[in-house]
Amino acid sequence: MKSPLWVVVLSALLSLGMLMPAAADDDGERRGEHFGEWFKSRGGGENRGKPIQPARVNVTFQQECSACHVAYQPGLLPAESWRKIMSGLDKHFGTDASLSVEESDEISGYLVNNASNRWKVDTSPMRVTESAWFKRKHDEHEIRPQVWSNPKVKSPANCAACHPDADKGDYEEHRVRIPR
User: Fold this and answer.
1) pTM
2) Is 30 in a helix, a strand, or coil?
3) What is the spatial distance between Cα 180 and Cα 169, in angstroms, rounded to a whole number?
4) Can you give the three-state secondary structure of 97-152, one letter per residue?
5) What average pLDDT does the segment 144-157 reach?
6) Closest to 22 (Cα-Cα) out of 6, 36, 11, 8
7) pLDDT surpassing 80 at residue 24
8) Could you give the C-alpha distances from 125 to 7, 35, 108, 119, 161, in angstroms and in order?
9) Other Cβ atoms within 10 Å of 142 Cβ, number
10) Do 65 and 170 meet the contact criterion of CB atoms below 8 Å apart?
C-alpha cells in the first residue's frame, strides 16, 4: 500500500533533522528548528536569531566605531557584552575611545536593542573572537593558524581582511577571500 504524501514528506523531514528539537551549543546557537535555519546551517549563512546587521544602522555608531575598526554588528554579541564594552570605553582594548555621554547612550542603546538574542547561557564575552561560534567557525580545521600571522590579516579581529563585506554584516562562507 502507498503511503500518503504527508507521511513521506514528514519522514523525509525527520530523517534530515528538520523537525527535531533545536539543540543549543554553549553560546546558545540553535540549529534544526525549521528549513530556513537548517539550510543556513549547511552553507546558506548562519541564523543567529535577530539579524546580525539591523535594517537601519545608527549613524553615530557607524562613524565612531568604524573610525578605528570594522563597526562590529550588534547581532554578533549578546546585550550584556555590549553593556560591558560600552561601560569601559576609556580603556577600550588598550585605547581611550571615550565618547560624550549623549553619544555613548545613543550607541549603547543601539547595540543593546539590536544585540543577538541567541545566547541562552550566562556569558558575555568582551570580544567577538571569544565566542564559541566564532571559535568553531575559525578553528584550525577551517583556518590554518598561519593565516592569523599574515600581515594582511594581523588578527582574528580583523574580519574585513577575509570577509570583504564584513562592514555590511556579510560573513557568508562562500565569499571569504583569505589574503595570501
Assistant:
1) 0.67
2) strand
3) 23
4) CCCCHHHHHHHHHHHHHCCECCCCCCCCCCCHHHCHHHHHHCCCCCCCHHHHHCCC
5) 90
6) 36
7) no
8) 44, 30, 16, 11, 22
9) 12
10) no
**pLDDT computed for residue 85 by the predictor:** 93
Q: How many residues does the chain have?
A: 180
Question: Among residues of the chain, what percentage have pLDDT more than 90?
Answer: 28
Using alpha carbons, select from 164, 151, 82 the residue that is nearest to residue 115: 82
Short-list 72, 58, 78, 64, CA closest to 171: 72
138 pLDDT higher than 50: yes
User: How many helices and strands (H and E) does the chain possess?
Assistant: 6, 2
Q: Cell digits for 162?
A: 577575509
Nearest to 45 by CA among 53, 54, 34, 36: 36
Where residue 55 falls among pLDDT bands split at 50, 70, 90?
confident
Give percent above pLDDT 70 in the chain.
69
Q: How many CA atoms lie within 13 A of 102 on its CB side?
A: 1
Residues forming a β-bridge with 48: none
- Cα–Cα distances in Å, from 35 out to 13, 137, 142, 158? 9, 21, 25, 32
